[in-house]
Amino acid sequence: MTEVYTMKKLIWAIIAVVIVGGVGFVGIKEYLNVYRSDTAYAVVPATPKKTVTRDSDGKKVTDSQGRQEYSYDYTFKWVTTDGQTRTVGFEQSSANPTPLAPGSYVKADVSKTRVTKGPFSVNAKDVPAKVLQQLK
């Protein structure tokens, strides 16, 4: 009887380890895709249409003073400092957003799926030469 009980405990322990390991693996993979970022540069495309900002439920978003927020939804073609390219969007929103200057250069920290920091305007001379070649 104790052998069967011990065997059941062992099987449950193995199942628990597999489940915890699987969840951990998926969590780490998701973290690396979403939050691990690299420095990247892009050329600002033409100014997109200014739209009303909406939340994930489709409701209009207002700021802390009750003013309607508006957005510019950009799609950037980023080039990282090691030459990788990524197409990642960025939404600039506020009650009175100022669009980025088309044709100018921006720098940001970019993961595989999102901009994690930035974008910030930079001069062409501040863009690494090999990145600048890829952007042109």
TrEMBL record:
Organism: Lacticaseibacillus pantheris DSM 15945 = JCM 12539 = NBRC 106106
Keywords: Membrane, Transmembrane, Transmembrane helix
Domain of life: Bacteria
Protein name: DUF1093 domain-containing protein
Parts of the chain that traverse the membrane: 10-28
